[in-house]
Design goal:
The complex is a heterodimer of chains A (284) and B (300). Chain A has helices at 69-75, 106-112, 127-137, 144-154, 158-161, 174-187, 204-217, 230-236, 263-268, 273-279; strands spanning 29-40, 43-54, 58-62, 86-94, 97-98, 113-116, 192-196, 222-226, 239-247, 253-262. Chain A has 284 residues and is of the alpha/beta class. Chain B folds into two domains: 2-55; 80-299, Orthogonal Bundle (MetI-like fold), CATH 1.10.3720.10. Chain B is built from eleven helices and no strands. The longest helix of chain B is centred in the first third of the chain and has 51 residues, at 2-52. Chain B has 300 residues and is an all-alpha fold. The chains are: A alpha/beta (284), B mainly alpha (300). The interface between A and B is medium-sized, with 30 and 23 residues.
Chain lengths: 284, 300
Amino acid sequence: MSVVSSSIEPTVRVETKRQPLPPRERLETVFEIENLDAIYGSKSALKGVSLEVYKNLVTAIIGPSGCGKSTFIRCLNRMNDLVPSFRQTGTIRYHGQDIAARDVDPVAVRRTIGMVFQRPNPFPKSIYDNVAWGLRVLGMRDNLDDRVERALTQAALWDEVGDRLKASALSLSGGQQQRLCIARAIAVEPDVVLMDEPASALDPIATQKIEELMHNLKTEYTFVIVTHNMQQAARVADMTAFFSISRGEEGARWGELIEYDATEKIFTAPSDKRTEDYVTGRFG
Amino acid sequence: MSAADATQLGRRNDRLRRRHAVNRGMELLAWLAAAIAVAILGIVVVSVAKRGASQLNLDLFTKTPTATAFTLHPVAQGISNAFVGSLVIVGLATAFALPIGILIAIYVNEFAPGAVKNGIGLVLDVLNGVPAIVIGIFVFGLLVVGHGQSGIAGAFALAVIMLPLVARSTIEVLALVPNTLREAGLGLGVPRWRTTLGIVVPQAVGGIVTGAVLAIARIAGETAPLILVSSIAGSSVAWNPIHALQTVPVAIFQLSEEPDPQAHARAWAAALVLVLFVLVVSLVARWFATRSRRKLQGAR
């Protein structure tokens, strides 16, 4: 005598206090991605992705496991170069410059396009040195203490660690470690911060803190966040891209961009049936 | 219902009992194997200690061997020249092999593409398997023929033995450093070499030291190549590696060939010192290893 819920009410509520997005022509384009294909060895991970990422917005990438969300975001700062079998075609223009081109130095790309990873990965150094190491190595040695304090404050961590900067970063809780990683990333003053499921290993309170700090920092940075948590996308993102898995002959599967629009539209009035199925929880 | 269950249960118990018996038998075998290893080490240490104890005194380290073994008045003798020679030759060999071995490992683990990585790994394994006497003959032909024996030739031979040991152990500890730390450094826009030097190597330094220390322990007792390339040495203390230097393992070999029972006892005493050296060094290495492992686990 099980009750089958027939409710098709959206499971995700979009925050109403959100400021309306300016019209697209008034937005400044940071990334212009055109026809991006990503291949590991002989297996396609992404096919034909085209979208634009706008300045000072939070752009969320959502979709089921294996749809190439992480592959996509790692293309944006050449992190996939570390995988020997990886190849990509198509263009990724960053302020007009194709950063996917062979002659572009990936180190320079990562210098302006920072990244926060899925699992907190602080260096086994002190809290202070975690933030200061990048600054020192990249030659930003002036006012080191101020820069560290500013980054930790922006990452909403200063109040908790300000009095024990010499303590090991590994003594912090998971949520604090992740905020330290965010502080480390923004201390070197990147233009864009990529976040690959930054809260997937964290509890709800730590997650909320990270969402808040993204909200507060987006006037200074452009965020691209991968998340498998739709509520999170609805809460933090201005624009949302929905990726899904397409299937071809002989069991081939690859990720594709299905729909990209304002977050509100994606969650309340998606134009593609697959997006609707996913955001209402009827995927699969 | 209960009767059927009881027989089922009984049958299962039989099988269980057999399994227990097999388990106990295997455990006993494994225990015996471990006991044999410990016993062999114990026998070696005890027999060496028993025979060498009479000569294990300060004179062994401070006095040189006299030129003639048969003197009218017995004189205190030692093999201080061999200890000094070993120190110089092992020190030089470490200075040759350690930086190169570590650099090889950094290249292989951090920079080399897959095929090159496997190729160098194979080369290191083969080099590690070359018998010490073959390395001795190689160095003899390379450095001794035409120039004469020298401490440098000895150090070079030991360095060739040490190189694959250091490189292999360093590759292993570098592979233990979690990739997430490399990504963290690279994600900041820090070049690869800076990330390697600033994050990866410091994280692995305990393990690198452990491997180096064990390799030093290994070459300190190496005899065969030294007999070929640095054995015809004077009996006075000498530091200059341009000339042949006496070393502890070679001294043990030569003393054991002498007709004087006192010399035999000194050979045993020197052997005891060598065994104790290896023991102490292994303990130091273990301490470093646990320390670095704890550090690595903290990082995960």
